[in-house]
Amino acid sequence: MTTPTLHSFETLRVRREGSVLFADIAAPPMNLLGPELVRDLVSFLQWVEADEAFRVVVFRSADPDYFISHVDVTRIGEYREATVKLTGEPSLGLLFRHLSVSRLVSIAQIAGRVRGAGSEFVLACDMRFAARGSAIFGQFEPAFGVIPGAGAAQHLARLIGRARALEVMLSADDYDADLAERYGWINRTLPADALGSFVESLAHRIARFPAAGHVTVKDRVNAVALAPVEDFRRDSDLFLEGVRRPEFQRRMQAAMKRGFQTRDGELALSRLLDDLSDR
Amino acid sequence: MTTPTLHSFETLRVRREGSVLFADIAAPPMNLLGPELVRDLVSFLQWVEADEAFRVVVFRSADPDYFISHVDVTRIGEYREATVKLTGEPSLGLLFRHLSVSRLVSIAQIAGRVRGAGSEFVLACDMRFAARGSAIFGQFEPAFGVIPGAGAAQHLARLIGRARALEVMLSADDYDADLAERYGWINRTLPADALGSFVESLAHRIARFPAAGHVTVKDRVNAVALAPVEDFRRDSDLFLEGVRRPEFQRRMQAAMKRGFQTRDGELALSRLLDDLSDR
Amino acid sequence: MTTPTLHSFETLRVRREGSVLFADIAAPPMNLLGPELVRDLVSFLQWVEADEAFRVVVFRSADPDYFISHVDVTRIGEYREATVKLTGEPSLGLLFRHLSVSRLVSIAQIAGRVRGAGSEFVLACDMRFAARGSAIFGQFEPAFGVIPGAGAAQHLARLIGRARALEVMLSADDYDADLAERYGWINRTLPADALGSFVESLAHRIARFPAAGHVTVKDRVNAVALAPVEDFRRDSDLFLEGVRRPEFQRRMQAAMKRGFQTRDGELALSRLLDDLSDR
Asked: Is the pLDDT of residue A2 over 50?
């Protein structure tokens, strides 16, 4: 197998330190999860999983304001299709679940906004740490009448319990890093200037321990706490049914007019969604 | 169907704002959950669920010291019978579970004491927010040798984990709002003077988003995090077996003499139960 | 049945107050979980369970620095064999699970280090309270390439969720009492000088309430939140497979040279494990 260089990705900047890889998401202007980023995630995972020298992957963002904003709603068919190469079927949820069951240990180091499928991506990582005063979390899909399509309901119901999971999704609101920690959405919130070195040191510590134990631990924990494939597939189907409803289309058009899916417009997405509903 | 006016309930004061209903529990002298309140909850739910104009229900208390104290232990047969109209069988747990699976979004805004079946009622709501320095939670049933009968064991074991669920029930003790938040019993604790406007604004925000998405989200979350009907029914049966035991009767009589089921006597219920055991 | 005196255990100092027993672990020099302590735990449980006068057991440590350090890795076969008398098969996990389903209510009062099987022992207790600034928790087994063998993966995945459970085990790191509380690993952290009287008063309160209710509550909570026997057995087998691998042997020898399984060497175990990996 030919190993691509570390710089061959359009939307991921990869740096290697021993058996740890740092993958910075760089998809301007706002790290939308579109076909390009999905294709790169697929290629990246295939490359990394094929080489046993790699043990731990740290996902970060090159954009201080957006980790991953959410999916590109204008290209849903395309980005779903881009997952097939790895998962055999068009489903972002199954791509993310692939990461959850991978022998790789994945860590999300989160600054900036991570909403919708972005939040679902970090929920699929093995661990997630966030920068106080910077990271913002949201599952706003129900503001458009649809369920999150890539596993948020599965993860949140198991992780933070019925009432907080319902609050997060039904309110479609933003949650700062401290509240996200209190709710159990993320492992821990750290001061923004301490986050990088904390994660780096954790990643290297983990990478120094034997791979065999980590695989066993992940297997046993996933058997208890990770939703089965069918549940991810079902949510994915329900999302797709939802986006085809006229109400979704109508609300999405109204949102677009107000700046949805623009860098500036989503700095205060919570208010945008609130106003939208007043139409 | 004829719609009753908003003022037709004996123990519930209902106010409407758009598609949000505010239902204040008003069953003096201490908001006991007896046949009257159960009958009103049944009628209220039937009325509200039948009208698609209603989307979100906020439950509050008209009594600053008691949200719901607990069931009226002198009328167990009666209040259970009052649930049949909605659930088909006499079980408070199944009435509460009806609320959990309803298309309605339910929010508990809690000030004052909420113990026993009161705590189970708010556990059945989709979300619960409490006033710091005011709200007090307790599942004291095991102090009388019985399991909570309306779902507390089911909810708490899933929500706050084995050890905290056991502590809460075996200790039969009071938990203030801050500790209840740390344990995950409730969504969040807010300053008492900020609670009302927070919940009001959340309820209206949720009500402005499409109903279809909310139904799907509730279905999917309930499939993971809500106990099946059989488990509620089993706890209900175990409770009933328990209250028939002589030890329950004896302890309850002793408690009644010390002020149990009186407004003043239950202000410091934790101590009353402790003293009781010293008999 | 002849009741042994309260002082007949080699590694447990037992004191009785009414129906509450206080069992202080005293296995110098560092409260290793070896055959002696396992034998004593088995005898202690058999004795206490046989006498209905006993209701609540509080486990504490006679050593301020170590609650239970971990298993004696030089005597794995022996301590496993010592469980057979109670569980019918050689498995520490099944011994601990016996405690979880016992009619006895068990409370761990934790000061000092509690790592590996020590942490698994307190996870099997019904409740656990820790001293701020003193208690330290860790599941470091994956640093040697093995899964915790006595139930940690089962308990932690259910209790603290997928991401925190993975972090705790994959990092093999130390967690102080405050972080352990935030993660939900323990019920609560208290000031070190308040812990003893808090637990004492809780134990006596619980012991004053009827036994029948407690048995029912434990049954119902365990049915939801305690892993089945097969899962404990499977982890136990996976642990045993792991310790037979050459990599485990090699790492363990290197660790022993650096002071593993010595009182001084494990005061800063996190660093010892880190250095080990740099070999």
From this structure: no
B/e letters for A75-110, b = 16+ CB within 10 Å, e = fewer, are bbeebbebbeebbeebbbbbbbbbbbebebbbbbbb
Q: What is the pLDDT of residues A175-219, one digit of tens each?
A: 999 999 999 999 999 999 999 999 999 999 999 999 999 999 999
Gap from B275 CA to chain C (nearest CA, Å):
10
CB of A227 within 8 Å of a chain B CB? The answer is: yes
User: How many CB atoms neighbour CB C244 within 10 A?
Assistant: 11
Q: Which two tokens stand for residue C13?
A: 């100092």
Q: Give the residue from B210, B272, C190 showing the smallest Cα distance to A142.
A: B210
| pTM, entire model | 0.97
Q: Does the model's ipTM exceed the 0.95 cut?
A: yes
CB contact under 8 A, A147 and B208: no
For residue A100, the distance in angstroms to the closest alpha carbon of chain C comes to: 10
Residue C166 to residue A126, Cβ atoms within 8 A: yes
Mark the ranges of chain B whose per-residue pLDDT is less than 50.
1-4, 279
pLDDT tens across A70-80, in order?
Answer: 999 999 999 99
pLDDT digits (tens, 9 = 90+) for B36-69: 999 999 999 999 999 999 999 999 999 999 999 9
B209, closest residue in chain A (CA to CA): A143
Residue C114, burial from CB neighbour count under 10 angstroms (0-12, 13-18, 19+): buried
The number of angstroms, rounded, from the C-alpha of A168 to the middle of its chain's C-alpha atoms is: 16
Strand order in the sheet with A20-25: A12-17, A20-25, A56-61, A105-110, A127-131, A188-190
Helix (H, G, I), strand (E, B) or coil at A53: coil
